[in-house]
Design brief:
The chain is α+β, with helices and mostly antiparallel strands. It has two helices and 28 strands. The chain has two domains: 39 residues; 300 residues, Methylamine Dehydrogenase, Chain H, CATH 2.130.10. 17% of the residues lie in helices and 45% in strands.
Length: 383
């Protein structure tokens, strides 16, 4: 007689067999995954080895490392840099308010003798007493708004205007005389700079930049370059290199010796009246509408954009010292920024510094700054 297995033992045996099958399938899956992962890693390693071997020149590796650092800077702190709690207000009330212009104050500079000088939409230039801040001298030689005033290394005062002219003045105390008038532009002359005590350079809304060569304290037109748009701002950034703006969305970098554009950056917001400022030996500050941009001039790359909500166009800007930058905007607010590596951190702000757009900010020394505005006033602040 043949004995049959009990029912329960058959069920147990079936369960054990099913478990063995599942385990073997899991092992197969795990081994497949591992082999795929190993193959993937092997490919990556192969690529890495190949890319390193491609760099035969050690300078290429150094350049790559620099680029990596630059990218790290871009990724660093992408969030808004604003402190949303209480601000430590550095600017209190102005110690002087100057109301001698009849129209917008467009530009400010400081003379070698320490006196403040301003240019206005009322076509006038005013030099102020450095103690009382009352006018020492008023110059009415231009027929249109004054866009820029600089004092050259020789002591000569150079001014540019919407009347398409550049005028050179000799200032002696409370007197002046015109040395020369340059009439080569066919539209507004927006800004002028001096380079190497040799060149005077001007940019214009006629879509050109003109280089004038100094010869016995007189300037002669040396050469001219064309720009693809209205040129509002220029500045020296290296020994033989300047940057300039085209319209309000392109920055070009021009080699003076080679007379050619080295590089350019498009789609970048730039205020028409805001200066280019070197905030370090490598970093260039540019301001636009509701934001600030920082460019690395060695790679000609935008490395950071800082949003400044509700500021509108940021026009005025100046360095207080090597660590602090000040900006003024069309809302009449002055902000104080701390420079940290390739970043700006807002540390204070003064709302209602002016009743209208702030066009100019100037460090006049001894912990004082001057601000000019569309409200026709100039204010002197102590920090």
């Amino acid at each position: 007689m043949e004995l049959s297995e009990p029912k329960e033992s058959k069920e147990n045996k079936g369960k054990k067999e099913n478990k063995k099958i599942k385990k073997s399938k899991l092992k197969e899956k795990e081994s497949d995954k591992k082999s795929k992962k190993d193959k993937k890693n092997g490919k990556k390693k192969g690529k890495e080895r190949k890319s390193i071997l491609e760099f035969k020149n050690p300078n290429e590796i150094i350049f790559l490392n620099k680029k990596i650092k630059l990218l790290e800077g871009q990724l660093k702190d992408k969030k808004n840099n604003f402190i949303n709690n209480n601000f430590d207000i550095s600017l209190k009330n102005p110690i002087h308010t100057l109301n001698y212009h009849n129209e917008w104050v467009l530009c400010l500079t400081i003379l070698n003798d320490g006196r403040l000088i301003s240019g206005s939409d009322d076509n006038s230039i005013i030099i102020y007493n450095k103690t009382t801040y009352q006018p020492d001298l008023i110059i009415n030689e231009h027929k249109s708004p004054i866009n820029c005033i600089i004092q050259l290394n020789s002591g000569i005062l150079a001014t540019s205007s919407n009347d398409k002219k550049i005028k050179l003045f000799n200032i002696k105390g409370n007197n002046y005389n015109i040395i020369q008038t340059l009439e080569y532009h066919t539209d507004w002359v927006n800004q002028i700079i001096e380079i190497k005590n040799k060149y005077l350079v001007s940019c214009s809304s006629d879509k050109s930049i003109i280089f004038y060569l100094k010869d016995n304290n007189k300037y002669k037109k040396h050469y001219q370059i064309s720009t693809n748009g209205l040129c509002f701002c220029i500045n020296k950034i290296k020994e033989n290199e300047i940057c300039y703006s085209e319209n309000d969305d392109k920055i070009c970098f021009f080699d003076i010796n080679e007379r050619k554009i080295k590089s350019s950056i498009s789609n970048i917001s730039k205020s028409w009246n805001s200066p280019f400022i070197m905030i370090s030996k490598d970093l260039l500050f540019i301001s636009g509408k509701n934001k600030i941009s920082i460019i690395n001039i060695n790679y000609y790359e935008l490395i950071r954009e800082i949003k400044v909500p509700n500021s509108g166009w940021i026009y005025g800007a100046c360095m207080l010292n090597k660590n602090i930058l000040l900006t003024g905007d069309e809302k009449g607010i002055i902000r104080e920024w701390k420079i940290e590596e390739d970043n700006l951190i807002l540390i204070s702000k003064k709302e209602n510094a002016h009743n209208d757009c702030i066009t100019s900010l100037l460090n006049i020394g001894n912990g004082h700054i001057a601000s000019g505005s569309f409200d026709k006033s100039i204010k002197i602040w102590k920090i």
